Amino acid sequence: MFNVAAMHLNFRLAAEALHLTQGAVAQQVRQLESDLGVKLFHRQARGLALTERGEQYHQAINHALSIIETATQRVTTPDNRVTVSTTPSMAAKWLVPRLTRFERQHPDIEMYIVASEKVINLQTDGVDIAVRFGRAPFDQSLDAEHLVSITLLAVCSKAYATTHYQLDTEADSDEFTVDDPKSFVIQKLIQDSHGHWDEWFREMNLQPARRMLRFNQTSLAIDAAINGQGVTLVPSILVQDHLEQGHLVSLWQHMVDNGFGYYLVSQKSQTPPEPAVEAVRQWLREEFACSKTSRL
User: Fold this and answer.
1) Could you tell me the pTM of the whole model?
2) FRET pair for 199, CA 20 to 30 Å: which of 32, 43, 160, 261?
3) Where is the domain boundary, 55, 76, 97?
4) pLDDT tens-digit map of 243-265
5) What whole-number distance in Å separates Cα of residue 237 and Cα of residue 294?
């Protein structure tokens, strides 16, 4: 009540704003002055004027009320920030190129992306959703939804393929013929930390003829292939855009049947997820479904 009277500097106007009588407002202010032992207003013929102590008190009260209003808005306004954790390569090669579509569909949701290879704790690290490469079973405290299985592609730049492989003249597009897996033995090979080439050579009962160029991140292996430094063997979903844009060509497809894939992971809860979190989950499902369809 004091704050309203201080803003209007008039008991009548303050009473109208508070839907009270002028006498009730004046009485409450007199009671406050009595309780504080401080005169807050100069009573004048045409209104009020704050005393020096009253002006100081009014500024402090205004500041306190502003803090309360801000805190109330934060508590009552839905939290539209969703934290998504994924690997650096998945973030760089698949998620980031699709964020424009997400922003168009959900302009009111802020997606905060945490790109890291480290094992996270969804409960303590403040992560709402994780997109992770792995296979079942997962920890019982987690909900893990399978998004896509893994198909490996041996890819390289068109310039590298033109130099080392034969163009398939019967194909409608720029495709290269690789009929014999032994042809990879003598190539410059690029490998990430997942060791897909090592596993492939074991399955084919072959040995590479030269040392491989190795990276700890799949995205770096892909970039090296784009720059003509050799052939890398990586999940098709991570090079899908580069293939469509002509940055890379596919030489070999290798189906993987070991249960590994990309999963949508979240903490189990007795309560439904926040609407913003569920919107991001559904968008990820749809985008992965589109990615699977485009690979068929």
Assistant:
1) 0.70
2) 160
3) 76
4) 999 999 999 988 877 778 899 99
5) 10
